[in-house]
Amino acid sequence: MWYLKSVRTRFPPSPTGLLHVGGLRTALYSYLVAKQSKGEFLVRIEDTDRERFVPGATKNILRTLHWADLDPDEGVILDQGEVSGKGNRGPYIQSQRLDIYKKYADELLKKGSAYRCFCSSERLDQMREDQQKRKEAPMYDRLCCSLSEEEVQKKVDAGESHVLRLKIPRSEKITFTDDIRGNLTFMGHTIDDQVLMKSDGFPTYHLAHVVDDHLMDIDIVIRGEEWLSSLPKHLLLFQELGWKPPRYAHVPLLLNKDKTKLSKRQNDVAAEDYIDKGYLPEALLNFLALLGWNPGTSEEIFSMDELIENFSIERVQKSGAIFDTEKLDWLQGQWIRKISVNEFADRIRPVVSEKYHEVENDSDFEAKASLIQDRLTFFPEAVEMMGFFYKAPKVKADLLVNEKQKVTKEILPEVMEALKDTLESIDEKGWDEENLKEVLFKLSEDKEWKKGQVLWPLRAALTGLPYSPGAFEVASVLGKEETIARIASVKNT
RNA sequence: GGCCCCAUCGUCUAGUGGUUAGGACGCCAGGUUUUCAUCCUGGUAACAGGAGUUCGAUUCUCCUUGGGGCUACCA
């Protein structure tokens, strides 16, 4: 993918709560498009709805974006953990741009592209109800359009509460090409006269989106499909303001199992939920990228750099995707195996040390961690899996008896005795995986025991678990002294 | 109800006017491994329906059906 010019994209969350995984995906797509053209990715805060405003939400969303490695180049950023701004097209928080919206609202009013509406919400409710009863599309009936200039002025002077509505040219046909969906057509008479400015002086999303994305030089607007039906209003606004609209790409929705819009009731929808569950950002992003997009090859594991390299908005799917986390778990496993042992150890150290404080001073922690890296999907599983390293298990002989491995009650004492003697004979210096393997294989050969007859009891005696890393690995990490001690302490009953 | 969008295995998806309709996850079976996990091999399973265009449609067109989104002084 290459571009003639760098592309500016934006992600505009509302500070009404936690970052939604669907939002994280559109943020990712926007980020990728900007980065692959060496352009800028901006974050703008859309806080025009004071009712739903949640204090602290902005900081939280920014923190989550940072976790996902989607830090904005411009706009609202996190500076030393505090919300701050960057760039010369600000402010980037809509509540701080009220005078700007006012200016363009006045312009639209003067041009006759918009009009003041004094209707009460009661009247509007009643009107819609009546329309519904008559099986008509609920739309503003333009009552206030028939007000004379004098009447309007009188009401304004009297301080009557009112909103500003966009006057949709009803006879117009609006066509547009979406980057994902292709050609779209809307008839003017099916579009409602959208409110542009609320009575409290705040703009609605529609006006703010058009003004901001123009003033912030956004080249392509990537947003959820739920905005598709308001696209003509936005297009009309650009037209009335005399501006060139950006490219648009409406990405398909993320769905619940029943194919409805992904919702809290049925799923964990906050990105934070997945952070809390221990998913790696690489895994979540990889998963999200693949929900609705594919490279056209059979490649499935993508790092951020590879996504930047390969992503293209044209290959994004048109239909919605069920948010089914089974593949996420698989990707999580893939990414866990991909990170370095060092990093892996760093990730599980805090979790494990919560239960086993010895971890903090354990210089062999990394070696132990490496034994379980291929075996787990979530970091907390490490606690269970590594416990035996720090606390000698109380092992009963029952566990060492294993029918499938042909370890019988009768043979067991002899095996244990031989194991002890053999291991005793190994020099401390030669106590490593390779050597242990050689010596123990020889033991089974000499005694004409199957490998399992020797190794199953050994492994079980050392770990106290039915499933665990292998006997050689564990014995090697545990060291000679501890290994022999554990063999000796197996209870016979 | 109105407007708009969408439709390939259970899920994420590839794909072409003529293919044994491909891959991945999941599931099942087998193999490697002392166990489990990993890993490898194989299997399971899909073009919503009906017309039309065509020598031939999963692919193009239309209709039906199904699903979804929007229909707020929310975004």
Helicity, as a percent range: 40-55%
| Structural class determined from secondary elements | alpha/beta
Instruction: Quickly count the domains.
Output: 4
> What are the low-pLDDT stretches, counting only 5+ consecutive residues below 50?
none
CATH topology of the largest domain: Rossmann fold
Q: Assign the CATH superfamily of the largest domain.
A: HUPs
| General form | elongated
Overall pLDDT, averaged? 93
Side by side, the strands of the main sheet go 1-2-3-4
What does the model show?
This protein has a 4-stranded mixed sheet, sandwiched between helices. It is elongated and about 110 Å long. It contains 20 helices and 13 strands. The longest helix has 16 residues, at 21-36. The chain has helices spanning 21-36, 57-67, 98-111, 121-133, 149-157, 205-215, 231-241, 271-276, 281-290, 304-310, 326-338, 341-355, 365-372, 381-390, 397-400, 412-424, 433-447, 451-463, 471-478, 480-488; strands at residues 9-11, 41-43, 74-79, 82-86, 114-117, 163-166, 173-178, 182-187, 195-197, 220-224, 247-251, 254-255, 321-322. The model has no long low-confidence stretch (mean pLDDT 93). The protein folds into 4 domains: 9-94 and 254-322, 3-Layer(aba) Sandwich (Rossmann fold); 97-251, HUPs (Rossmann fold, 3-Layer(aba) Sandwich), CATH 3.40.50.620; 339-379, no CATH class; 397-488, Arc Repressor Mutant, subunit A (Orthogonal Bundle), CATH 1.10.10. Helices cover 44% and strands 11% of the residues. The protein has 493 residues and is of the alpha/beta class. Strand 10 (220-224), helix 7 and strand 11 form a beta-alpha-beta unit. It binds one RNA strand of 75 nucleotides through helix 4, strand 8, strand 13, helix 11 and helix 18.
